[in-house]
Amino acid sequence: MKAPVRVAVTGAAGQISYSLLFRIAAGQMLGEDQPVILQLLEITPALGALEGVAMELDDCAFPLLAGIVQTDDPNVAFKDADYALLVGARPRGPGMERKDLLEANAAIFSVQGKAINDNASPDIKVLVVGNPANTNALIAQRNAPNINPRQFTAMTRLDHNRAMTQLAQKTGTTINDVKKMTIWGNHSSTQYPDLHHATVNGKTAIDMVDQAWYEGTYIPEVQQRGAAIIKARGASSAASAANAAIAHMRSWALGTAEGDWVSMGVYSDGSYGIAEGLIYSYPCVCKNGDWEIVQGLEVNDFSRDRMAATEQELAEERDAVSHLLP
Ligand code: NAD
Ligand code: LMR
């Protein structure tokens, strides 16, 4: 058996975590040979509810669960952490855009970025789920100057999965037939799901659908799916978000499949002309615990406009939180 790794999860008594923690402890994120110590962070008033979650984790008798830490102190939660899933943040309600949460949530991520900087393993892998995820990841990253910025990522895997399923349903196939999906940009209603490189059974997806459906139905449905879930469920996506978080971390830690890639919000190095330093969703391959942006994809004018629009929104979000970016 391997030595246990430390996995910090914030918002651990919230609805996403209620789906997430049990799957991490079951080995679905880091592998069935990898014991984990869960380091769970909550705000003080939620520590009672967190105790209940920890009791249930105990009651599962997970062979891989090597310990549970419960705390309201970020310095304790991130101590020696190898992985961090930053979920704790307010979710939006009906009629809100995710960036409306910026004011309520941004401060959380500057505090946690500092605590990661001061306490975590220098090799920590961070995934930000709390919205607006890309800009919260940027805030955390900029408050952790001693950690390589590549180690801070934001979740667009849920959008990626949504885009795969909508395409499979339209083409009468299954998600097993769909490869090379790409979400560019922000986890927001400006994100750009790109079918020019995606394939269905080896054929280019954009050639299998008509442009009117792509522009008028597919793109807006993927962009608005989070809002549609809120409308239908009366609460934001939880199990599917947890599933995407598991998949994001698993790909990063254990690698992506040969001949395929995944979408991840990562630190832009200027690839595809996107401003350096933004946390922008790109197609990525992962290997040996590291990610690389897929290079050399052709970008036509249609795609370029949409990639620029979502970049513009990220630049505006960054400027709106400049007081939190040292
Ligand atoms: P929730 O309200 O059920 O849970 C959030 C939890 O975070 C609460 O228990 C709260 O007490 C805790 N919390 C708040 N501030 C905290 C802090 N400073 N430190 C630690 N914990 C803190 O919300 P949820 O449904 O679990 O969603 C959490 C976040 O994830 C929301 O911002 C939501 O919009 C976002 N989300 C993102 C995606 C994505 O694809 N990136 C998908 C779904 C949801
Ligand atoms: C989602 O995409 O489901 C989440 O980001 C929740 C939301 O606010 O849409």
From TrEMBL:
Active-site annotation: H187
Reactions it catalyzes: (S)-malate + NAD(+) = oxaloacetate + NADH + H(+)
Binding-site residues for substrate, renumbered to this chain: R92, R98, N131, R162
Residue ranges constituting the Lactate/malate dehydrogenase N-terminal domain according to the UniProt record: 5-152
Entry's Gene Ontology BP terms: malate metabolic process; tricarboxylic acid cycle
Gene field: mdh
Domain Lactate/malate dehydrogenase C-terminal: 156-321
Organism (species): Porticoccus litoralis
Protein name: Malate dehydrogenase
Residues noted as binding NAD(+) in the record, renumbered to the chain: G11, A12, A13, G14, Q15, I16, S17, N105, Q112, V129, G130, N131
Keyword annotations: NAD, Oxidoreductase, Tricarboxylic acid cycle
MF terms (GO), sorted A to Z: L-malate dehydrogenase (NAD+) activity
Signal peptide: none
Known role: Catalyzes the reversible oxidation of malate to oxaloacetate.
